Amino acid sequence: MKINRLFLALVVLVLASLACQAIAGGSSTEAPSVPAGDGGDTGDADAPTPEDSGGGDSSTGSADFPMPSDASNVMEVGAGVLNFQTKSTLDESMAFYRDEFGGMGYTERDILTVTAETTFSMVFDGHESGKAIVVQGVDLGDGTTNISIRLEDV
């Protein structure tokens, strides 16, 4: 049953992502690059590591996205895509990003905020690159939430 819920949650996230992209007018089909799986040097000295997530209320990865202090399994997948897990609930994670990005001067695009029992998706405008920040979360069912943050063309 958990596998079905996880599959459904992933399908919802993919559909939400496609909807955000369609509304924003994007049509990029470029696949993200995958970092080296051996944990060796990937050539990006600024790539976030699990050690980057300790201390304070938040820390930032090389994509300059804030993360909760308990972020684990931190990975930068391609340029401008951050993925990690946290013990925060979906509601706590949404509140965290509203506070953090709001404090940075970004504006949530409320019409694109989608919540479900095990997932959420939020879009923030105002990044210096001119791109929108997309934050998506999935409750993994084991007390952790997977968070994915990326920049997307407006």
Descriptive overview:
The protein is built from 2 helices and 9 strands. The strands form 2 sheets. Strands 3, 4, 5, 6, 7, 8 and 9 form a 7-stranded antiparallel β-sheet that branches. Strands 1-2 form a two-stranded antiparallel sheet. It is globular. It is α+β, with helices and mostly antiparallel strands and 154 residues long.
Sheet with the most strands?
A: 7 strands, antiparallel
Total strand segments:
9
Order of helices and strands: HEEEEHEEEEE
The helicity comes to: 10-25%
Mean pLDDT: 74
List the helices and strands and how they pair.
Layout: H1 2-24, E1 58-60, E2 66-68, E3 72-76, E4 81-86, H2 90-103, E5 107-108, E6 114-115, E7 119-125, E8 132-139, E9 145-152
Antiparallel strand pairs: 1-2, 3-4, 4-9, 5-7, 6-7, 7-8, 8-9
Give structural attributes.
154 residues; alpha+beta; TATA-Binding Protein; two-stranded antiparallel sheet; 29% strand
Short description:
This protein is an alpha+beta fold. It has helices at residues 2-24, 90-103; strands spanning 58-60, 66-68, 72-76, 81-86, 107-108, 114-115, 119-125, 132-139, 145-152. It is built from two helices and nine strands; from the N terminus they run H-E-E-E-E-H-E-E-E-E-E.
